[in-house]
Amino acid sequence: xxxxxxxxxxxxxxxxxxxxxxxxxxxxxxxxxxxxxxxxxxxxxxxxxxxxxxxxxxxxxxxxxxxxxxxxxxxxxxxxxxxxxxxxxxxxxxxxxxxxxxxxxxxxxxxxxxxxxxxxxxxxxxxxxxxxxxxxxxxxxxxxxxxxxxxxxxxxxxxxxxxxxxxxxxxxxxxxxxxxxxxxxxxxxxxxxxxxxxxxxxxxxxxxxxxxxxxxxxxxxxxxxxxxxxxxxxxxxxxxxxxxxxxxxxxxxxxxxxxxxxxxxxxxxxxxxxxxxxxxxxxxxxxxxxxxxxxxxxxxxxxxxxxxxxxxxxxxxxxxxxxxxxxxxxxxxxxxxxxxxxxxxxxxxxxxxxxxxxxxxxxxxxxxxxxxxxxxxxxxxxxxxxxxxxxxxxxxxxxxxxxxxxxxxxxxxxxxxxxxxxx
Amino acid sequence: xxxxxxxxxxxxxxxxxxxxxxxxxxxxxxxxxxxxxxxxxxxxxxxxxxxxxxxxxxxxxxxxxxxxxxxxxxxxxxxxxxxxxxxxxxxxxxxxxxxxxxxxxxxxxxxxxxxxxxxxxxxxxxxxxxxxxxxxxxxxxxxxxxxxxxxxxxxxxxxxxxxxxxxxxxxxxxxxxxxxxxxxxxxxxxxxxxxxxxxxxxxxxxxxxxxxxxxxxxxxxxxxxxxxxxxxxxxxxxxxxxxxxxxxxxxxxxxxxxxxxxxxxxxxxxxxxxxxxxxxxxxxxxxxxxxxxxxxxxxxxxxxxxxxxxxxxxxxxxxxxxxxxxxxxxxxxxxxxxxxxxxxxxxxxxxxxxxxxxxxxxxxxxxxxxxxxxxxxxxxxxxxxxxxxxxxxxxxxxxxxxxxxxxxxxxxxxxxxxxxxxxxxxxxxxxxxxxxxxxxxxxxxxxxxxxx
Lengths: 423, 452
Known about the structure:
The complex is a heterodimer of chains A (423) and B (452).
Chain A: H1 18-25, H2 28-37, E1 39-41, H3 50-70, H4 80-90, H5 94-121, H6 130-152, H7 157-171, H8 177-185, H9 192-224, H10 230-235, E2 244-246, H11 247-272, H12 295-306, E3 310-311, E4 314-315, H13 316-332, H14 334-337, H15 341-366, H16 370-391, H17 397-422
Antiparallel strand pairs in A: 1-2, 3-4
Helix pairs in contact in A: 3-5, 3-11, 4-5, 5-6, 5-11, 6-9, 7-8, 12-13, 12-15, 15-16, 16-17
Chain B: H1 3-26, H2 33-38, H3 48-52, H4 71-76, H5 78-81, H6 86-90, H7 117-125, H8 128-131, H9 142-148, H10 150-158, H11 166-170, H12 187-198, H13 201-204, E1 208-209, E2 212-213, H14 218-223, H15 226-233, H16 242-246, H17 259-264, H18 268-275, H19 278-285, H20 291-295, H21 316-320, H22 329-361, H23 367-386, H24 392-447
Antiparallel strand pairs in B: 1-2
Helix pairs in contact in B: 9-10, 22-23, 22-24, 23-24
């Protein structure tokens, strides 16, 4: 039996020092090699690469703040609200940690939406990155599930009734609806059993799934490298001719700027607008006015509210849920559906309609007042239009249409603000 | 009567009942289906309804209208629902074969005059053994109470048949259970039921009690009172209505010396305090009607702190300003002090409440202090109650307790506002290094050699 020969220059004796001790034992040379090899292409849309890093940074904040919250949280209907209340009032910086956790969750979902939108605009889902796209969509779904399950945990009135409405939607699904409803709630109604399930989902099941999915997503990003928009590649005669920068340290430092900006925004939001706790849930009271889910579910909630009881003999709510299910499936399958110029045009039109639908429904559901709806809707449109303009070429018809829409959104914003000021 | 005419009469009456039932079925105001289902149809040989079940069969129909009993009456009647039938109250035999003029039947219990009604109802309702069939611990004192009431005494002593008897308040053949929402004696209906007579100016004219005229505005005045507001608008069935102060079966106007006891039924603490004061004896001595002297009787408004003291609108000033009814200037001074004590606590509670509101608007968690502020409000309520001791010390003590709470809550509210300010300062401090790092990073990136 022969022994494998030892590598002559890898022994600690030849590389003294603590850094080298770990360098040798942790295979840091492999990581260093990968980091040295990784290049980031430079083009007009390069700043959008920061969105992934920002989302990752917020996820780390969520883990840290979530672990701190879990030290005090008690997942039972009798104690959940009181434990969060005590955490906010009696624990040093408890208010800040909870506020950071809630705000970071919302910022994370917002950044993931932008990440999704810009990845679509850059067509980053093209071969061989179909799986990167699919894991990204699944990650977005997982983070939305994080938001949905976490919303109930403080056991306050709004969250309780919003969860009751939200979980009831599962029940309208044919065949499996009732079984899924029982599985989600742990019984017929939203009770302490539901709270236990949502807690387990929020702190154990979803984190495990997310870490696994995130690891796979990052591996794919590392493996395939950054996607270059085909428009940019064409402009310079091939993606290999694009200028690049090393990931370490050039891009990493730029990424750090993004993280710090997010940290600053998060600190300002948490300090100036502490996340409210509301009133403790009273399951036997009537539903309070103005129950609504988190903003990222609001477009679905608002749309489902508008549907009539029955459409062509089928339950309206069921049709709505199936519609959103199909829409999610279409987004998931975009890499497969994008098969040429025509299908791309159809997808672009559908994407534009989806964005308009999202903004209109969100603004409609968020405020009761017309002028405030107008301000929110126009502001969101301006944000998306500025994003779209950055992806369009100068002098093209698309760019001109986008500018016209921007002018229209600005006008609507001015009208909304004027109405609000003079009312 | 020989057999043939009896048969003819029986056939004619049966036909008329059949037509009557058919006519009632076609009537637009048919009772709801569930009530109809609950109505147990009488057997064919039950003769009472032949005459009393419809109009036109009794001579002088207008005059005898009260003798007509309809299906609509019976389906809601508690006696009918409990299985009692006409003969259980009225006696006699309802069997068709024994059809005779029931007035000649010795077992028939006659109701010749309203004076007979209390005894008629008391036949069962004063019989504990009989009533226990329906309820384990039945009330059987209604009739005996009635004879002690203003109504009963007047009926017995003067034979005034216009006074209220059992049927005036409970109905005749449509007597609903007392807990039925539509019962004439359900708490929300009592005042209207009493008003049927007591708001009738013509009926009430000339009637008096112990030399005092009744008047006919009690219902109108009560309708504007804090009790009516609580009862009719807030749905508080424990709020006082006519029978809570005057009694029901033994209803009498309250005398001067018993008025505080009537109010004290609900306002127990106030009544206890008042009972031990010199003020009570002074009121009795000068024939002032206790609580009503300051608060009024039927039109009792929600009391305010302005009623206390010597300023305009204060009830204390009515006597103490001019020394009426033996009122003293020392009493006026105490009234002023009590008013000022209460005003001080009210101001503090309001001021601290505003601070808590401000802190809450700024997003601070102030649930605990807000909960504790309730103790100050409780102390204020206690102090307002203790006003009825007509002594300054207990009021001062209660107010001091309240002020201690407001002082603590005020500290908490100010701490919350202070913390909000500190958060902004710390935010500023934390943003400085963040901005500095971002700036340094950008400068460093700029200084880096250009990439390829």
